[in-house]
Amino acid sequence: MNEESNIKATKEAMSKAYVPYSNYPVGVLIITDKGNKFTGCNVENASYPLGNCAEASAIAAMVMGGERKINQIYVMTKNDEGGIPCGGCRQRIREFSDSTTQIIMCSPDGIQNRMNLSELLPQSFGPEHL
């Protein structure tokens, strides 16, 4: 798959989001170090803390698929600046990444920003610190 196909898959994931309360859909596509792909969307709940972020959903799918290493992660929202992972999701991504993992922030118009995890979450705490 090329980048255009990756953006399309991320947009498709975003279209499946269940967001009746915030109306803020998010879609994610993870590409692992083995080249496998996993998607996720946010799923809200009337009891707000019980919802799932799209990143968490995609990471869970990746783990269920037997993978443990994120090479790239596309995050899409309807915002013009693209999908910026929240603090909790930055830490979730960090658990399965290294400093060179690429975070690609997209809007429906395409890529808006691209950075490595070390830029998005500097001086991060990970499994190797335990």
UniProtKB/TrEMBL annotation:
One of its GO terms (molecular function) is zinc ion binding. It comes from the Bacteria. GO terms for cellular component: cytosol. The active site is at 55 (proton donor). Its EC number is 3.5.4.5. This enzyme scavenges exogenous and endogenous cytidine and 2'-deoxycytidine for UMP synthesis. PANTHER family: CYTIDINE DEAMINASE (PTHR11644:SF2). Belongs to the cytidine and deoxycytidylate deaminase family. This is Cytidine deaminase.
